[in-house]
Amino acid sequence: MTIRTAQETVSEHQKGLLITAIGGLVLTVDIPLIKLGSGEPWSILLIRSGSTLAVTLIVWSFLSLRAGRVIPFLPGKTGVVVAALYGLSAMSFMAAVFQTSTANLVFILAFNPMFAALLAWIFMREVPRRATLAAMVLMVAGVLIIVGDGISSGHLLGDLLALFSALFIASAITITRASGRDMGFAALGAAVLPFLAAVIMVWQTGYRIDVPGWILFNGMVIMPLSFFCLAIGPKYISGPEVAMFYLLETVLAPVWVWLIFAEVPSERSMIGGTILIVTLTVHSLWQLHANRRRRSAIAVRHPV
Fold this sequence. Notes:
By secondary structure, the chain is mainly alpha-helical. It has helices at 2-27, 30-37, 41-67, 76-97, 102-109, 112-123, 130-153, 156-179, 186-189, 192-205, 212-232, 239-261, 267-301.
């Protein structure tokens, strides 16, 4: 009985790793597809968020029909706040794509887990461990190096928008954790906010996307698939393991952009980005090891 249970646990863990890895890998092509679309930012946001919202509503309707009841889309006022934060993050992210380099954008977005830890410390009284505090200091240094490079290269606005995008996501995660409610559709349903904003702006400035097929593919396939996989990953594997797969975008997105568009990161951006990636990877591995030690201790105290 014990052997079968252990085998089932390993199988579930492998399933979680596979699903989350798919989500992380798929997400790495988001920025290259936006650039391939080659259009005006508000027009791209209109098609990207609109197609994501349409797919989300179709999936939600199908699941509700299958369940024989209306599945809550946004659970109460908390769900509305979380969706609004995800929506603001999407708009600041889209603006940052056109205001700074891809490397700067994804490197700064990697600061998201540390923002989440800081907000949990302030609002949820979850005091971070010394290793987390040390990682925060190093990552702040990395972000300052990148932002400093943005000041000298004229990308300060884009770097700040990327920083706000990371802050909005971290705030949404913190509120979700504090509420303990299911926010499965909140992240995708949040597309309604950037969609409505884009409708207003495109109505005033006009529509222009040179290759809309790339943006439609991004909104209808890439975004729903990546967020769905990353959202269900924690059901099978630990938080630190899920966080490590988010790093795939930080590492691979600049590579795809470099290969396709020959966009080479600056030296200071690479230095700051390396500090962020190494610090976050080491911290995630440390968290993973600590969680495994805690689970092993519990298993010893409560053998099957």
